[in-house]
Design brief:
This protein is α+β, with helices and mostly antiparallel strands and 262 residues long. The protein is 26% helix and 24% strand. It has 2 domains: 12-88, 434 Repressor (Amino-terminal Domain), CATH 1.10.260; 129-253, Sandwich (Immunoglobulin-like), CATH 2.60.40. It has 8 helices and 9 strands.
Length: 262
Protein backbone atom coordinates (compact mmCIF):
# COMPACT_ATOMS: atom_id res chain seq x y z
CA UNK A 1 0.00 0.00 0.00
CA UNK A 2 1.31 3.46 -0.90
CA UNK A 3 1.67 5.86 1.99
CA UNK A 4 2.42 9.51 2.54
CA UNK A 5 5.03 8.86 5.14
CA UNK A 6 2.66 7.87 7.96
CA UNK A 7 2.56 4.17 8.67
CA UNK A 8 -0.30 2.52 6.82
CA UNK A 9 -1.90 5.78 5.65
CA UNK A 10 -3.13 6.17 2.07
CA UNK A 11 -2.01 9.14 -0.04
CA UNK A 12 -4.61 11.94 0.22
CA UNK A 13 -5.11 12.18 -3.56
CA UNK A 14 -5.83 8.44 -3.66
CA UNK A 15 -8.51 8.82 -0.98
CA UNK A 16 -10.15 11.62 -2.95
CA UNK A 17 -9.94 9.63 -6.19
CA UNK A 18 -11.46 6.54 -4.57
CA UNK A 19 -14.36 8.64 -3.24
CA UNK A 20 -15.00 10.16 -6.70
CA UNK A 21 -14.98 6.72 -8.32
CA UNK A 22 -17.26 5.20 -5.65
CA UNK A 23 -19.77 8.06 -5.97
CA UNK A 24 -19.81 7.75 -9.77
CA UNK A 25 -20.22 3.98 -9.72
CA UNK A 26 -22.97 4.23 -7.12
CA UNK A 27 -24.86 6.46 -9.53
CA UNK A 28 -24.40 3.92 -12.33
CA UNK A 29 -22.37 6.26 -14.57
CA UNK A 30 -19.33 5.36 -16.64
CA UNK A 31 -16.28 7.61 -16.95
CA UNK A 32 -17.18 8.66 -20.49
CA UNK A 33 -20.70 9.57 -19.37
CA UNK A 34 -19.60 11.77 -16.49
CA UNK A 35 -16.91 13.37 -18.68
CA UNK A 36 -19.63 14.34 -21.16
CA UNK A 37 -21.84 15.74 -18.39
CA UNK A 38 -18.91 17.80 -17.07
CA UNK A 39 -18.11 19.05 -20.61
CA UNK A 40 -14.71 17.34 -20.81
CA UNK A 41 -13.58 16.45 -24.31
CA UNK A 42 -11.89 13.31 -22.98
CA UNK A 43 -12.33 11.13 -19.92
CA UNK A 44 -8.58 10.63 -19.45
CA UNK A 45 -8.15 13.51 -17.00
CA UNK A 46 -11.01 12.26 -14.83
CA UNK A 47 -9.46 8.82 -14.94
CA UNK A 48 -6.22 10.26 -13.50
CA UNK A 49 -8.17 11.96 -10.72
CA UNK A 50 -10.06 8.78 -9.82
CA UNK A 51 -6.84 6.75 -9.86
CA UNK A 52 -5.25 9.19 -7.42
CA UNK A 53 -2.51 10.20 -9.86
CA UNK A 54 -3.48 13.88 -9.50
CA UNK A 55 -5.37 15.94 -6.96
CA UNK A 56 -8.59 17.31 -8.53
CA UNK A 57 -9.58 20.96 -8.23
CA UNK A 58 -12.65 22.21 -6.37
CA UNK A 59 -14.37 22.74 -9.72
CA UNK A 60 -14.01 19.06 -10.62
CA UNK A 61 -15.26 17.87 -7.24
CA UNK A 62 -18.15 20.35 -7.26
CA UNK A 63 -19.02 19.03 -10.72
CA UNK A 64 -19.17 15.46 -9.45
CA UNK A 65 -21.49 16.54 -6.63
CA UNK A 66 -23.71 18.42 -9.06
CA UNK A 67 -24.12 15.80 -11.79
CA UNK A 68 -24.42 12.95 -9.28
CA UNK A 69 -27.06 14.79 -7.27
CA UNK A 70 -25.05 14.75 -4.05
CA UNK A 71 -25.55 17.31 -1.26
CA UNK A 72 -23.03 20.12 -1.59
CA UNK A 73 -19.97 19.42 0.52
CA UNK A 74 -20.28 15.63 0.41
CA UNK A 75 -17.05 15.30 -1.56
CA UNK A 76 -15.68 18.81 -1.08
CA UNK A 77 -15.11 18.21 2.63
CA UNK A 78 -12.90 15.23 1.77
CA UNK A 79 -11.00 17.30 -0.81
CA UNK A 80 -10.38 20.12 1.67
CA UNK A 81 -9.10 17.66 4.26
CA UNK A 82 -6.81 16.06 1.68
CA UNK A 83 -5.45 19.43 0.53
CA UNK A 84 -4.74 20.49 4.11
CA UNK A 85 -2.87 17.23 4.65
CA UNK A 86 -0.91 17.63 1.43
CA UNK A 87 -0.28 21.40 1.30
CA UNK A 88 -1.40 22.99 4.57
CA UNK A 89 -4.26 25.45 5.13
CA UNK A 90 -5.94 25.95 1.70
CA UNK A 91 -7.29 29.44 2.47
CA UNK A 92 -4.08 31.19 1.41
CA UNK A 93 -4.00 29.05 -1.73
CA UNK A 94 -7.67 29.38 -2.64
CA UNK A 95 -6.84 31.01 -5.98
CA UNK A 96 -5.02 27.94 -7.24
CA UNK A 97 -7.48 25.41 -5.81
CA UNK A 98 -10.61 27.21 -7.05
CA UNK A 99 -10.09 28.36 -10.59
CA UNK A 100 -13.29 29.93 -11.91
CA UNK A 101 -11.82 31.20 -15.16
CA UNK A 102 -13.21 29.45 -18.22
CA UNK A 103 -10.80 28.27 -20.90
CA UNK A 104 -11.20 29.61 -24.41
CA UNK A 105 -12.37 26.26 -25.90
CA UNK A 106 -15.23 25.77 -23.43
CA UNK A 107 -18.53 26.32 -25.17
CA UNK A 108 -21.34 28.11 -23.30
CA UNK A 109 -24.33 25.88 -22.62
CA UNK A 110 -27.94 26.56 -23.55
CA UNK A 111 -28.54 27.88 -20.05
CA UNK A 112 -25.65 30.31 -20.40
CA UNK A 113 -27.34 31.78 -23.48
CA UNK A 114 -30.30 32.49 -21.21
CA UNK A 115 -28.07 34.21 -18.68
CA UNK A 116 -28.21 31.35 -16.15
CA UNK A 117 -24.82 30.05 -15.03
CA UNK A 118 -25.01 26.23 -15.18
CA UNK A 119 -21.50 25.37 -13.99
CA UNK A 120 -19.11 26.58 -11.27
CA UNK A 121 -16.88 28.06 -14.00
CA UNK A 122 -19.63 30.58 -14.78
CA UNK A 123 -20.14 31.61 -11.17
CA UNK A 124 -19.25 35.03 -9.80
CA UNK A 125 -16.51 35.10 -7.15
CA UNK A 126 -17.72 35.03 -3.52
CA UNK A 127 -15.48 37.91 -2.41
CA UNK A 128 -16.32 41.63 -2.79
CA UNK A 129 -15.17 43.04 -6.15
CA UNK A 130 -12.04 45.16 -6.29
CA UNK A 131 -11.27 47.92 -8.82
CA UNK A 132 -9.56 47.00 -12.07
CA UNK A 133 -6.03 48.32 -11.54
CA UNK A 134 -2.46 47.20 -12.17
CA UNK A 135 -1.68 44.43 -9.66
CA UNK A 136 -5.29 43.45 -8.89
CA UNK A 137 -6.48 39.83 -8.81
CA UNK A 138 -8.39 39.34 -12.10
CA UNK A 139 -10.96 37.08 -10.45
CA UNK A 140 -11.62 39.53 -7.60
CA UNK A 141 -11.84 42.35 -10.16
CA UNK A 142 -14.64 40.58 -12.04
CA UNK A 143 -12.60 39.76 -15.13
CA UNK A 144 -13.26 36.01 -15.25
CA UNK A 145 -16.79 35.99 -16.66
CA UNK A 146 -15.80 37.04 -20.20
CA UNK A 147 -12.12 36.06 -20.10
CA UNK A 148 -10.57 34.48 -23.19
CA UNK A 149 -7.13 33.10 -23.98
CA UNK A 150 -5.63 35.15 -26.81
CA UNK A 151 -2.36 33.22 -27.00
CA UNK A 152 -0.84 30.12 -25.40
CA UNK A 153 2.59 28.52 -25.53
CA UNK A 154 3.94 25.28 -24.08
CA UNK A 155 6.92 25.57 -21.75
CA UNK A 156 9.82 23.08 -21.86
CA UNK A 157 12.34 22.14 -19.19
CA UNK A 158 15.65 23.96 -19.70
CA UNK A 159 17.86 20.85 -19.61
CA UNK A 160 15.44 17.95 -20.16
CA UNK A 161 13.29 17.16 -23.19
CA UNK A 162 10.00 17.43 -21.36
CA UNK A 163 7.12 19.91 -21.51
CA UNK A 164 6.22 21.08 -18.01
CA UNK A 165 3.12 23.17 -18.78
CA UNK A 166 1.78 26.06 -20.83
CA UNK A 167 1.44 29.81 -20.32
CA UNK A 168 -1.61 31.74 -21.53
CA UNK A 169 -2.26 35.41 -22.14
CA UNK A 170 -5.76 36.03 -20.75
CA UNK A 171 -7.93 39.01 -21.65
CA UNK A 172 -11.18 40.54 -20.46
CA UNK A 173 -12.40 43.04 -23.03
CA UNK A 174 -15.34 44.09 -20.85
CA UNK A 175 -12.99 45.01 -17.99
CA UNK A 176 -10.02 46.07 -20.18
CA UNK A 177 -7.57 43.83 -18.34
CA UNK A 178 -4.87 41.30 -19.25
CA UNK A 179 -3.00 38.73 -17.15
CA UNK A 180 -1.08 35.47 -17.36
CA UNK A 181 -2.38 32.01 -16.54
CA UNK A 182 -0.34 28.83 -16.20
CA UNK A 183 -1.36 25.17 -16.38
CA UNK A 184 1.12 22.58 -15.17
CA UNK A 185 1.52 19.14 -16.76
CA UNK A 186 2.09 15.74 -15.07
CA UNK A 187 5.85 16.35 -14.74
CA UNK A 188 5.19 19.07 -12.15
CA UNK A 189 2.47 16.99 -10.48
CA UNK A 190 5.04 14.24 -10.05
CA UNK A 191 7.56 16.61 -8.46
CA UNK A 192 4.97 17.89 -6.01
CA UNK A 193 3.90 14.35 -5.11
CA UNK A 194 7.58 13.65 -4.39
CA UNK A 195 7.49 16.62 -1.96
CA UNK A 196 9.68 18.82 -4.14
CA UNK A 197 9.41 22.60 -3.69
CA UNK A 198 7.88 23.89 -6.96
CA UNK A 199 7.36 27.66 -7.26
CA UNK A 200 5.54 29.28 -10.18
CA UNK A 201 6.17 32.95 -11.01
CA UNK A 202 3.52 34.31 -13.39
CA UNK A 203 3.76 37.76 -14.94
CA UNK A 204 2.20 40.00 -17.55
CA UNK A 205 3.91 42.90 -19.32
CA UNK A 206 2.39 46.02 -20.84
CA UNK A 207 5.06 46.73 -23.43
CA UNK A 208 3.90 50.27 -24.26
CA UNK A 209 5.23 51.62 -20.95
CA UNK A 210 7.34 48.72 -19.68
CA UNK A 211 5.10 47.89 -16.71
CA UNK A 212 5.35 44.25 -15.57
CA UNK A 213 3.25 42.70 -12.80
CA UNK A 214 4.38 39.37 -11.33
CA UNK A 215 3.10 36.97 -8.70
CA UNK A 216 4.82 33.89 -7.21
CA UNK A 217 2.95 30.96 -5.65
CA UNK A 218 3.57 27.32 -4.81
CA UNK A 219 2.37 24.95 -7.54
CA UNK A 220 -0.95 23.34 -6.58
CA UNK A 221 -1.96 20.93 -9.40
CA UNK A 222 -4.39 23.33 -11.05
CA UNK A 223 -4.67 26.47 -13.18
CA UNK A 224 -2.70 29.30 -11.57
CA UNK A 225 -2.92 32.92 -12.60
CA UNK A 226 -1.09 36.14 -11.88
CA UNK A 227 -2.34 39.63 -11.26
CA UNK A 228 -3.58 41.90 -14.02
CA UNK A 229 -2.51 45.01 -15.87
CA UNK A 230 -4.96 47.52 -17.27
CA UNK A 231 -5.24 47.48 -21.06
CA UNK A 232 -4.77 50.85 -22.71
CA UNK A 233 -2.47 50.47 -25.70
CA UNK A 234 -0.50 47.36 -26.49
CA UNK A 235 1.07 45.03 -27.08
CA UNK A 236 0.96 42.67 -24.08
CA UNK A 237 2.61 39.37 -23.24
CA UNK A 238 2.44 36.88 -20.37
CA UNK A 239 5.44 35.16 -18.81
CA UNK A 240 6.18 32.27 -16.49
CA UNK A 241 9.26 31.07 -14.63
CA UNK A 242 9.32 27.72 -12.81
CA UNK A 243 11.65 27.00 -9.91
CA UNK A 244 12.27 23.62 -8.30
CA UNK A 245 14.01 23.80 -4.93
CA UNK A 246 14.84 27.46 -5.80
CA UNK A 247 16.56 26.48 -9.07
CA UNK A 248 15.16 27.83 -12.35
CA UNK A 249 14.10 24.84 -14.49
CA UNK A 250 11.79 26.38 -17.11
CA UNK A 251 10.85 29.77 -18.50
CA UNK A 252 8.68 30.99 -21.34
CA UNK A 253 6.28 33.63 -22.56
CA UNK A 254 3.37 34.18 -24.92
CA UNK A 255 3.52 36.16 -28.13
CA UNK A 256 3.16 39.91 -27.82
CA UNK A 257 -0.47 40.70 -28.69
CA UNK A 258 -2.25 44.01 -29.29
CA UNK A 259 -5.58 43.82 -27.47
CA UNK A 260 -8.69 45.72 -28.63
CA UNK A 261 -10.57 47.91 -26.17
CA UNK A 262 -14.30 48.59 -25.90
Amino acid sequence: MESNGRSGSILPERRVGAALRAAREAAGLGLREIARLLHYRSHSTLSEYEAGARMPSEIVVEGYERVLGLPRGTLLALLESANIERHGDPWMKRRTYASVQRTSHEEPTELMHKGIPSTPEAASPPWPPVPVADGADPDAAGCSMDAITVHSRRIAHITRRVVVGHIELRYSRRRSAAWGRFKGYPFLDHLMMQHQDVLIEIGVARLSDGVTVSLSETYCFDFMWGNLVVVDRGPYKSRVSIFVCKELVARGESDAIVLPRL
